[in-house]
Design brief:
GO terms for molecular function: ATP binding; DNA binding; DNA ligase (ATP) activity; DNA-directed DNA polymerase activity; exonuclease activity; metal ion binding. It contains 16 helices and 44 strands. It is of the alpha+beta class.
């Protein structure tokens, strides 16, 4: 069943309504009733059937009284995921207004059927015949109902009728007026700030992530009060991600292990929450004094051991949207509207700018520490970021248990643990801890130790010792029992000696949520140094020549005062500072891709030349790729740009723009993306370029093909389709040609002619860029054009009349990236099913 009519009526760049969704082939059929306050209040009655939701608008809503025959107007099919949609459709869009999930559940046709397929076959026959009879199992509606097509009225006119059974009633069921999903009324949903809706529209559509690793914070020495930062309590608990999607809910630890059984009250609360989301938070047990206690959490077995709470502080995915690309302040604003009334799930407290005051208050309360986060920080799963900082009140550290000792004559299971941490990949001895244990703890730990006993010390040699570190027996001649370095515990201590040994350590608890291989010695970085954001001061404002060490490579930057953009006065130094800032965003689109260097040694008004072969012309540390193109007499060695050092080295050569291949050296014949390059002639306007881009986007959207666009940084636009390196350049070009031809048929100012004189002043839709070794300016690349423009990725709702490539330059590109993140990331994803599409076409 097609969704063509549904998609035709909606602008998905402006509304959060879903575009699709896949129903399960087995299991129970779903139904949903949505209360919809549009131009007129009505109820949308939707039944799952063959992968879509057959839909009827019921003006007065359903009734449990068999005497009532409610008018139900059949409307276009809706996608399966629409059953989870609750929110606001913005003004100016089809169906603008507020939508609430009034009821939901499962249903089946009346009668006996073997499976879901048989049920759907029976329902399809009934639909065609104009009389459907089924049983609802909802939270508000239950029992038998019928949908009957009316006679003598419009073809889409039906009646919704309740059958006489034990669920029939005379009262008005619609007075039960809260959402079965959120518990909110229609009025409360309608009060969702327009800004929240706008934020969600900016997020990228993405499938539900089945696994993610939490973003981590960097340890610094002191608190601070800088603007643009906000501060949260550092909870003493287990970090947990809650995954909620289509009724399937799970809690996962930092290592990806399940917390479902261990912390079942939290799981139950998350299930009751009923949203489609991935949230980041901390599971804690709070003491009578209101403080989180890790010991009590570790020993928690049931409600008698204390009250569990789940403090949620970040939202990573919500209703088909990847929110990691939004700044923290927007992710938290959206999350704040979703916090349920269930008091087990709570919102983490935060304060802006007053970090020192917040730290002092946390210290007085006896908390573990505070977390500082940049308000504009994006979420990078699994990365330890300097946009999130932790400041500890108590000195604590995870350590690896590498062995234990037992003093002569002691009745304890063991006397001390021998500790280790990894430093630069090598396991180092870090001292021993003999206090902080309960006798019961020691007995349990000894049971864990038995299968890990080994003969030799697990420690490696270090630069500080001429031979491997050996445990030095104490005066009581305690023998060491060595263990495989697999178990992790947490200690607190006073300081670390010059030899890297913890002084006055005390055992806190075992940490099964931490992987031993990830336990490194945490060293406090100076907060002042971390706060100095990498930016325009990379190269100092004076000095024509400077030497900087980048990625361990000493780079000599020359002619820094040379003006590269005469009209604006931008220098080579300005360009290098920009590439230093943008490196982490642009490098994913350059790594392992041969580069064609377009060099402008004297700026954009001077002469330029292309350099592909760098044989004998670059330092030894520069990575190269040998390639012999068709027609070449010999192999050329292309430069690879896999590091920030390589990026800055290229820029220092005067390579203003970065021009990578569409494929990598790992699969050189299989591009990661398909490109449509919109190249206007002198007589074309950029508004016309925008119209071509939107036409192509609509064509691709109808096919279910994700498309991502960016300004070229010059006069045109580039549209990228992710391929995932699964298809050849020939296949990519074939599909691009088909798309270009379809768009060309719809517009009268475009051309797909390769020869310039045959285009007759029209915009050229270039599909021939999809060929081996062809290059285009990378996303975020500077262009050798007036204004120092940047090739900037865009959201489709930004592609509209009035847009100009001159809107994005080296002056404002970084600010935009900090606010929006890398919205082009999906281009590097798994890619479309091109073979299936080509067969259809």
């Amino acid at each position: 069943m097609a969704l063509t009519e549904y998609k035709r009526k909606r602008a998905f760049g402006e509304t959060l309504e879903p575009t699709g969704g896949k129903a399960a082939t087995k299991g129970l059929l779903r139904f949903v009733i949505q209360k919809h306050e549009a131009s007129r209040l009505h109820y949308d009655f939707r039944l799952e059937l063959r992968g879509v939701l057959k839909s009827w608008a019921v003006p007065k809503g359903p009734s449990l009284n068999p005497a009532d025959k409610r008018l139900a107007m059949e409307v276009e099919d809706h996608p399966y995921d629409y059953k989870d949609f609750e929110g606001i459709i913005p003004k100016g869009n089809y169906g603008a207004g507020t939508v609430m999930i009034w009821d939901e559940g499962t249903y089946e046709p009346i009668g006996q059927f073997k499976n879901k397929t048989a049920q759907e076959n029976a329902l399809l026959k009934q639909l065609k015949a104009g009389s459907m009879k089924f049983t609802l199992h909802g939270k508000k509606l239950n029992g038998e109902f019928a949908l009957v097509r009316t006679k003598g009225m419009a073809d889409n006119s039906w009646l919704l009728i309740k059958h006489k059974d034990q669920y029939a009633a005379i009262g008005d069921i619609t007075t039960n007026d809260t959402s079965v999903k959120s518990g909110k009324t229609l009025e409360k949903i309608a009060k969702t700030p327009a800004a929240i809706v706008s934020m969600l529209r900016k997020a990228k559509k993405a499938s539900f992530p089945t696994s993610l690793s939490p973003m981590l914070a960097t340890l610094v020495d002191v608190p601070f009060d800088d603007a643009g930062w906000e501060y949260e309590i550092k909870w003493d608990g287990y970090r947990a991600l809650a995954f909620m999607n289509k009724g399937k809910v799970t809690l996962k630890s930092r290592k990806g292990n399940s917390f479902d059984e261990r912390f079942y009250p939290v799981l139950d609360a998350v299930k009751a929450w009923g949203i489609q989301a991935v949230v980041d938070g901390e599971i804690v047990v709070v003491s009578e004094e209101g403080l989180s206690s890790f010991n009590r959490l570790q020993n928690w077995r049931n409600e008698a051991d204390g009250d569990l709470f789940f403090y949620v502080f970040d939202l990573l995915w919500y209703q088909g949207k990847d929110l990691t690309v939004l700044p923290l302040k927007e992710r938290k604003a959206i999350l704040a509207t979703l916090i349920p009334s269930h008091n087990l799930i709570r919102s983490g407290y935060s304060i802006a700018a007053k970090g020192t005051e917040f730290f002092d208050a946390a210290h007085k309360l006896g908390l573990e520490g505070v977390i500082a986060k940049r308000s504009d920080s994006l979420y990078y799963p699994g990365e330890r970021s300097k946009d999130w900082l932790k400041i500890k009140i108590q000195k604590r550290q995870e350590v690896i248990i590498c062995g234990y000792t037992k003093n002569e004559g002691t009745s304890k299971p063991f006397s001390a643990l021998l500790l280790g941490v990894y430093e630069h990949g090598t396991l180092r001895y870090a001292g021993k801890v003999g206090t902080g244990f309960k006798h019961s703890d020691q007995k349990e730990m000894l049971h864990l130790f038995k299968p890990l006993i080994r003969k030799e010390s697990p420690f490696s040699s270090t630069p500080n010792y001429n031979k491997p570190i050996r445990f030095r027996p104490n005066p009581l001649h305690a023998a060491a029992t060595w263990l495989k370095p697999m178990l992790v515990c947490e200690i607190h201590f006073t300081e670390v000696t010059e030899d890297g040994v913890f002084r006055h350590p005390a055992f806190v608890a075992m940490r099964e949520d931490k992987d031993a291989k990830e336990v490194v010695r945490e060293k406090e970085l100076p907060a002042a140094k971390v706060l100095k954001r990498e930016g325009k001061d990379f190269l100092s404002p004076s000095g024509k020549t400077q030497v900087k060490k980048v990625d361990g490579i000493e780079l000599h930057f020359t002619n820094l005062d040379k003006v590269f953009w005469p009209e604006e006065g931008y220098t080579k130094r300005d360009m290098l500072n920009y590439y230093h800032q943008v490196a982490k965003y642009i490098l994913p689109y350059l790594k392992n891709r041969p580069q064609s260097l377009n060099r402008f040694p004297n700026g954009i008004k001077g002469g330029s030349f292309y350099q592909k072969d760098v044989t004998g012309k670059v330092p030894e540390w520069v990575e190269k790729y040998p390639y012999k193109a068709e027609g070449d007499a010999r192999k050329k060695h292309y430069m690879l740009c896999n590091t920030k050092a390589a990026l800055l080295y290229m820029a220092n050569l005067g390579a203003i723009e970065m021009n990578p291949w569409s494929s990598t050296v790992r699969k050189p014949d299989y591009p990661d993306w398909c490109i449509l390059d919109l190249d206007p002639d002198k007589g074309n306007t950029f508004d016309q370029v925008v119209e071509v881009a939107r036409t192509i986007h609509r064509l691709l959207d109808d096919l279910g093909v994700p498309a991502h666009c960016k300004t070229s940084g010059a006069t045109g636009m580039h549209i990228y389709l992710p391929l995932g390196a699964k298809y050849t350049y020939e296949q990519s070009q074939t599909f691009a040609k088909w798309v270009a031809a379809r768009a060309n048929e719809e517009l009268d100012f475009t051309s797909i002619e390769r020869m310039t004189d045959k285009r007759k002043g029209r915009i050229y839709i270039d599909y021939l860029q999809n060929r081996p070794s062809a290059t285009l300016a990378a996303p975020y690349s500077v262009r050798p054009k007036p204004g120092a423009t940047v090739s900037m990725p865009l959201d489709w709702d930004e592609v509209k009349q009035g847009l100009s490539p001159k809107d994005f330059t080296i002056e404002n590109a970084i600010d935009r990236l900090m606010a929006k993140g890398d919205i082009f990331k999906p281009v590097l994803g798994r890619g479309i099913d091109l073979k299936k599409l080509l067969k259809q076409l």
